[in-house]
Amino acid sequence: xxxxxxxxxxxxxxxxxxxxxxxxxxxxxxxxxxxxxxxxxxxxxxxxxxxxxxxxxxxxxxxxxxxxxxxxxxxxxxxxxxxxxxxxxxxxxxxxxxxxxxxxxxxxxxxxxxxxxxxxxxxxxxxxxxxxxxxxxxxxxxxxxxxxxxxxxxxxxxxxxxxxxxxxxxxxxxxxxxxxxxxxxxxxxxxxxxxxxxxxxxxxxxxxxxxxxxxxxxxxxxxxxxxxxxxxxxxxxxxxxxxxxxxxxxxxxxxxxxxxxxxxxxxxxxxxxxxxxxxxxxxxxxxxxxxxxxxxxxxxxxxxxxxxxxxxxxxxxxxxxxxxxxxxxxxxxxxxxxxxxxxxxxxxxxxxxxxxxxxxxxxxxxxxxxxxxxxxxxxxxxxxxxxxxxxxxxxxxxxxxxxxxxxxxxxxxxxxxxxxxxxxx
Length: 425
What we know:
By secondary structure, this protein is mainly alpha-helical. It is built from 17 helices and four strands. 70% of the residues lie in helices and 5% in strands. It has a four-stranded mixed β-sheet, with helices on both faces.
């Protein structure tokens, strides 16, 4: 009964603060939507300004491709300076990319020379140029392939014509062989051998695939887990990070509130054991962890993320993940002088885990010492447990080692909370 009363107290305190309620609902949705939209090229609306100084067919084809793929403004100026001026004005007005097609664009392609497109962007916005260029090249790949195939066809037609002529020449040389005087026979043999050698070389060129010249070794990313896509794995990482940020904030502020209102002092002088108080915190914020899970899961499921869930393992994982976050937050609250400092520390730790989570830069590519230290953090075990629960449908019996590690962290922070509460005056 005492634990239930403490849970009611936590619930009333939580409901009273509407900001906390909205944080639990909206923050998981916000992070999930940001992640899904950021890594989905199909949802990017790139705005482009194009100034075409070239009057050839290739530049016209490129402009048509750009107009079909993006919101595109097309200009035809007389010189590069005028082009740059109009492009700059458009970018300052909100366009993401500006493109100047040089006057020799079509001529260079016709002569099998590589043309250069100048891409202009607002370099006061970090990383915009890199991502916009990557997305642009991804969308105009059809134009590049068309030029590649056309060039391949032209080269093969030319080499086939030369190959045919050389073949006829060899046939004529064979017919003339017996009529050649002995005095010029060595020169004749050398000529015949040279023609045969050129014929063999041209035959090889005629069979060449131009994609081999552009990209001699092709690479394709293939996940080792068949039937799975990366969004399911990303969800596990994102949920752990959001869980840490939200529950650290809520539990640390809750603990500061209890200290400020002398609730801990009254608790220690009452007949209610301190352990019951810690258990009530653990249970309440674990329930919050379950609430956080739902909106994020729905966003990823709607985006066709692959899930093959083991319910028992998932529930165990959510309890351990949320419990550890809650106890760490309580430690922050017990160690902070006021709500502002506890909030600042919680946000700092939460976003530190966000940067180190692998969502934006692979942990495996970090230096050896840093990687080894990160592997020892509870988050690495939490992510592994959720991956097994959500994607691999792994039975809980198979994950004993991971669960033991996380249970050890849970007991460690439980003991630390008990010590700090008893020690607190």
